[in-house]
Design goal:
By secondary structure, the chain is of the alpha+beta class. Among the domains are: 87 residues, Uridine Diphospho-n-acetylenolpyruvylglucosamine Reductase, domain 2, CATH 3.30.43.10; 119 residues, Uridine Diphospho-n-acetylenolpyruvylglucosamine Reductase, domain 3; 109 residues, 2-Layer Sandwich (Alpha-Beta Plaits), CATH 3.30.70.3450. It is 37% helix and 20% strand. It contains 15 helices and 18 strands. Strands 15-12-14-13-17-18-16 form a 7-stranded antiparallel beta sheet, with helices on both faces. Strands 5-6-10-8-9 form a 5-stranded antiparallel beta sheet. Helix 13 packs antiparallel against helix 14. The longest helix is centred in the last third of the chain and has 20 residues.
């Protein structure tokens, strides 16, 4: 271990020998995240259980200039928690306590290792609602959600993780603890440092506590599925729904390839004789829900929907939403390597972008399934390939170059919710421009002058 036995011994003294993994067999499980075709063994894996332990680990790492890569459940899709050589993987899954539910202020205080589903369940247990719902919510941790600024199916109406973070406890690279934010609905005192750490991908500090905003639980909801012979009809339906001043909580789409894979995997009765499917859900006051559902059905039929099916009850609605969440897993059954991306464009450009993805896939002779959050323009083109086939992987890389370039040309972005990490850092300068890159680098140097936190991620 290049950083020496003294460092390892001190790490074991801080955390206990049982919380420091060093054997190759133990390290393999932490050598990758959810990103395809990326793997790197760390120097060791360290499990912290308290903020004070995180403080001591970072003081040690900063003094010895040892790189630290923070990790939760490892579900990220941009290589953000991929280890760098000889680093300490600081795993926070054991910091998994829900510390406070404050009904008076509609807040929830948690440690970073709490799963998104556990947070949603804790809120529901109090008759409240935590809306962010990334596809990996059963296993992804809130620390990772904040670090990546995760989205989800309900992002159109309710927003993303950033919209629900009221405060953060962050340990800076030198071990100093910084608390930013509070339970106040209004607070404009000084810079919004809280927003600086959200989406920073573990490059500026280690999140050890998260104060979340909760909202009242919607009184009613209704779920609909519309099927189309053409993706353009589905895209126009979305445009018409928004133009009608309806903001559904869910407005998702699946293409033909994804529909077949999901139905084979989940068996929820999805129709197989269509080119596109829209999953629509409205929630709120019962009268408003009924009115919005009827209007969405009308607009879907106006745009040529072959069929509009209304879920009979909550059980069927949950099955449909679960089927959509299983899209990635379903597609992954078709090929050894599944590469899921998330180019995002303005809603008005959705049909153009979807057709472009299909054209690029045909150009490079690749299999692709496309699904995503049509309501907010977030597409997930998913290439089905084999990382052992070097020629095919090269064609996948070339295809993504064209897809991201087109997303930028259409006024979109190279990532809507997965982050930059290692996988997309070569595309960031073209999207961000010189001034933004200079400011981001300056911020990173100011907070982490020794460059120990997640080196090589986002930018060099």
């Amino acid at each position: 271990m290049p950083y020496g036995t003294d460092t390892l011994t001190q790490l074991q003294e801080i955390l206990g020998a049982q919380n420091v993994l060093t054997t190759r067999e133990d390290l393999i499980a932490y050598s990758f995240d959810g990103t395809a075709a990326m793997q790197q063994l760390p120097g060791c894996v360290a499990f912290a259980q308290t903020t004070e332990q995180v403080v001591q680990v970072l003081r040690l790492a900063n003094a010895t200039k040892t790189p630290v890569v923070t990790r939760g459940s490892g579900t990220g899709l941009s290589g953000g928690s991929l280890p760098c050589p000889d680093c300490i993987v600081l795993c926070l899954v054991k910091m998994n306590r829900i510390l406070e539910v404050d009904r008076a202020n509609l807040t929830l205080l948690v440690e970073p290792g709490v799963t998104t589903l556990a947070i949603a369940d804790a809120a529901a247990g109090e008759g409240l609602f935590y809306p962010p719902d990334p596809g990996s919510m059963k296993i992804s941790t809130i620390g990772g959600n904040v670090a990546e600024n995760s989205g989800g199916l309900r992002g159109l109406k309710y927003g993303i993780t950033r919209n629900y973070v009221m405060g953060l406890e962050v340990v800076l690279p030198d071990g100093e603890v910084c608390w930013t934010g509070n339970k106040c609905v209004k607070d404009v005192a000084g810079y919004s440092l809280r927003d600086l750490f959200i989406g920073s991908e573990g490059t500026l500090g280690v999140i050890t506590r998260v104060l979340l905003r909760l909202i009242p639980k919607p009184a009613a909801k209704k779920t609909l599925v519309a099927t189309y012979a053409d993706m353009g009809q589905a895209a126009q339906t979305v445009s018409d729904i928004i133009a009608a001043q309806i903001i559904p909580c869910t407005l998702e789409f699946l293409d033909r390839t994804t529909i077949h894979c999901v139905e084979d995997f989940a068996k929820v009765g999805l129709p197989l004789d269509c080119e596109a499917l829209l999953l629509m859900e409205t929630d709120g006051h019962p009268a408003a829900v009924a009115e919005e559902a009827a209007k969405m059905e009308e607009l879907a039929r106006k745009n040529g929907a072959r069929e509009v099916r209304v879920a009979r009850d909550d059980t069927e609605a949950t099955k449909l939403a679960t089927a959509r969440r299983s899209a990635f897993s379903a597609l992954a059954r078709l090929a050894p390597t599944t590469i899921l991306e998330d180019a995002t464009v303005p809603r008005s450009e959705l049909a153009t972008m979807i057709r472009f993805v299909d054209t690029v896939a045909k150009k490079y002779q690749l299999r692709v399934g496309t699904f995503g959050h049509m309501g907010d323009g977030n597409l997930h083109p998913t290439f089905l390939t084999d990382e052992r086939n070097k020629d095919e992987m090269h064609r996948v890389e070339e295809a993504f170059k064209e897809i991201f370039a087109e997303a930028i040309r259409l006024g979109g972005t190279i990532t809507g919710e997965h982050g930059i990490g290692l996988a997309k850092k070569s595309f960031l300068p073209k999207f961000a421009g010189d001034a933004q890159m200079r400011v981001m680098r300056a911020l990173r140097r100011a907070l982490d002058p020794n460059g120990i936190l997640n080196p090589g991620k986002m930018f060099d």
